[in-house]
Batch of 2 targets.
Target 1
Amino acid sequence: MISRARQDLDARTRPGPGFKGLTVLLAPALAIVLVLFGGGLALGVMQAMGYLPGAGLGRLGFQHFAQVLTDPDFATSFALTFYVAGVSTAIAAGLSILAALGLASLRSRWVHFIFQIPLTVPHLVVAVAMLFLLAPAGLLSRGAVALGLIAGPADFPLLINDNWGIGIILVYVWKEIPFITLMILAVLRNSGRELLDVGRTLKAGPWQRFRHITLPIIFPALAAASLIVFAFTFGAFEVPYLLGRTYPMTLPVWAYKHYSDIDLLARPEGIAAGIVIALVVATAVVLAQMLTRAARKKGMVL
Amino acid sequence: MKACRYRLTGLAVVLAVGLPFVPLVLWALADRWFFPALWPQSFGLRAWTYITSTAGVQVLAAVGQSMAVAAITAVIAVAMAVPAGRALGLYEFKGKDLVSILLTLPVIVPPLCVAMGLHLWFIRLGLAETLGGVIGVHLTFSLPYAIFVLWGVFANYNPDFEDQARSLGASRFRVITRVMLPMILPGISVAALFAFLLSWSQYLSTLIIGGGRVMTLPVLLFALMGSGDRPVAAAVSLVFVTPALVALFFSARYLGARSLAGVR
């Protein structure tokens, strides 16, 4: 990634293996992705449009999509999901800027290693841990009792299965900070040193240097990473399923609930909601890619 | 002054990362821990005895199934990702950006959407409720992920070494096994570790395609959370998190930005 510009140069000047060679190398992997991922989504769309095996394709239509989109619960779920994903991303992005500035000149390999731990810890484990930490009888509540702040679990503010999705947001913030931070750090390490020195000789204060030098440099990476995080949190299931309220549910939980309903007629609606999620996520991913490409075209190292 | 600031940053990182693990470890080692005690009244290995003896068969079977699914997924993913990563890392060609987007989407689009679509088709193919079906749906995101890791690996790979071996009379097969594979082995290990990890952490798509028959560790953990036995849930969580820490330990240095986006 650091030497990406150079790599692409190498790749451009290298004689290629020809169309046939490329096909042989790429075909097996692309075939699997196209058949299983593309096919899965395509079959999903067909089922959401009313396709049932054996019933023929004659009655395809958008009635299930219409039903989902006009369902008042769908709008509530969509808003909740957007809120949770948006707030998680915004908080994670803000803290990541601070973390990146703090870690940029820190050389300790141990601190960097520990900082990356949340990257690989499964969401489910973090959700369980947050439950033990934040529940009314959780560790924080016990700490508050020990400090004499509250009398019992009933006095502890509701942080799990609450109206504001606080537990869910905390899990995502904890999980996603290292990802955004590492994306920013990669940019910070490669550029900006000299510019900051120039800024210093021109008597720019710390805030001015941050606002006019650092922020513009890290912005494309920050925005692209944030979009990816937003996309991921928008479509994730485990954490809101475990830490969210039963009503309103986030969109992925809503989709799965409909899909697994005993009433088989709810199934196409669940899949239709799933397709809506996929569309939102795909839009964010494509936007992130476009941002990265535009930044690279301007000569930025990403 | 500066050293002091570094120490504070380090301390903040350790505390923030470590905090969620505190209740997990305490609960896993607590025999009795009633509210409002801040510290367990008595420590013991009840949870661990339970998951190794009473529920041992169930937990062991779940670990085994998780391992089998994740290992097979990782092997297939890497076997296909090596040639694909080579094509993407070494050569520039038309449509590369399209391939890049095509591979990014499955990594980020939730497997929920794909699994719901595939389910019906898998039922008809007899793949539902089988390990094979679950591996198939896990491949949809593990394979593109492995490709991104190996794309990065091959971007830094110098194929001139292969020419030298060839000019010394090495056969095509020997060039691959004696030159290419040894050179990219660290990259292959990282790709395999993380393909394994993505599959290992997967809950919902396993539940949909496996239909509760393929009982992997996360599926079991969800069931345990419902039962409300906190020490046991904490102990299983710690078992569940171990491969994640191992994978990170062995590969922290090799991860590039592209590969980071997909670690979930």
Target 2
Amino acid sequence: MRAADAAYAIGPAAPRESYLNAARIIEVARRSGATAIHPGYGFLSENADFAQAVAEAGLVFVGPPAAVQRLLGEKTAARRLARVAEVPVAEGTEPLTDVAAARVAAANIGYPVLLKPAGGGGGKGMRMVRKEDELETAWRAATGEATTAFGQPALYIERAIWNARHIEMQILADNTGNVVWLGERDCSVQRRHQKLIEETPGPSVGDGLREELGAAAVRIARAAKYENAGTVEFLVGGDQHFYFLEVNTRLQVEHPITEMVTGLDLVALQLRIAGGEPLPFAQADVVRSGAAIECRITAEDPRAGFLPASGVIALVREPAGPGVRVDSALYAGMTVPTEYDPLLAKVIAYGRDRIEAIARMRRALEEMRVSGVPTSLAFHRSALFHQDFVTGRYDTGFIEHWDARIAPELSAGATSAAALAAVLATRARGERHTLPPADAPWARAAREDALR
Amino acid sequence: MRYEVTLDDRRVRVELGDHGRFTVDDRAVAASVRETVRGRQWSITLAGESHEITVVTHDPLRLDVDGNDVRATVIDERALRANRGAAGTRTGRIELRAPMPGLLKAVHVKEGDHVVADAPLATLEAMKMENELLAPSAGRIAKVRATAGAKVEAGAVLIVIASE
């Protein structure tokens, strides 16, 4: 809001009364004189009814039209479309509405299986089920989440692919039938099917696989008569076989890494396409160079099972320097709310190659400070040194194998300094409740030192 | 005043003396201490090494020490003396508390039920996710203090388990 030219209140914090209130958003757009609505990557970005309502209101929706969203938003329909486009899909079912049917289907496919909402993707409401006696609990949680997130409880079952990598392909399509692919992103570092680190190029993706994934993504886009920016998600097994997962009919959170290596501004291109302009380049003009990594800094405590946290941000220091980009909403005094995703900031590092990108990311994460809520920083810092990450030999099991109990090694000096700061912090806190002892000697010493 | 500080699994004794002097594990430490953000961040130089310590959260105390995440506790000598008497008295009642504010979607147990450790007791919706709250230990459900559909605050006691 601070960066905006104008701001209009759309309602209270509860998403249903604000960000999911389509009529209110359209009314505000009219009042402000806007001619188009960019839905971002949140609440309404994959909502076909919203896209339709925007179009019917005579405004431009920046994204694929409602019919395309409806087709690809029904995840089992999207799987059928992929098969027609001759793109492999993992074994799975049509939408199921009760746990008894799920039990039969899961037994047929063979555990482990994934429960996925039929009404929408993005990992929300998705559950891995390893054996039959986990099915009922998982079903209950997943249908509940699916209802909250997508307004429908139906789930479908898909065979879980072990040691798979989550690789997605960025596409752009204009309104005249041009479709290009811009390159892949490896998003295998996930927790609860929510991504925490993404990188491009995928360290395991060779030129051959990249071309195949690009061509498959374009075939699906053409079959769906896709328009605007989109992402086709795949699972790639250890044997390099790939399976279509879903199409995200919006800009992705991790789009900056593709921008870093292609030099393209994806949001600007989205606006051009929505305005009816043809793509200003062809597939052969797309040049990728270097490597980019994104770390999603979230308000989750990696040392407590990534439990989401809320609170007030007391201080923020964001990293900077060559090749470092930070897309962030953080500021001191900000309340981290419980109503939305726990994403606080995205730290993006670019390098001429992967080694340089990793080095810059390590330095950036070390520089960053957030005070007020526990964040995922501790995870990200250690992940960037983890052998499996450094060698690029990681898969979607990475976080499960990451040991949150490892206490960091502190030098003797750091230990002394930390112990002293712990005491000072505790005393400082106590003083806010009582009267401050103005002449505490250690405080005076600190002040005197500061004046030196 | 003397303090016992734990930093993850390390124990350190700190004594704050007069004139800004202090000792760590009974050794006098020469340091320059700057409070860079009030009550939140300190820049401490000792023996030519510069360290930056940021409070991540106060309660429980979490520190960022030069980019390392450290869990800390601080007990002063008075509390230390007071605590010694109370230690070891376990009540056998274990509380399941809401780890964050949210909407209690479901309670899967009723009073009198016997549960095993890690059994799902309730579902809490927060941050667009459903979180299964698991039994911290085996036992009998002694009390269910919250009902499905209720908004709960962080730390609210939801269920009490009597260990057996």
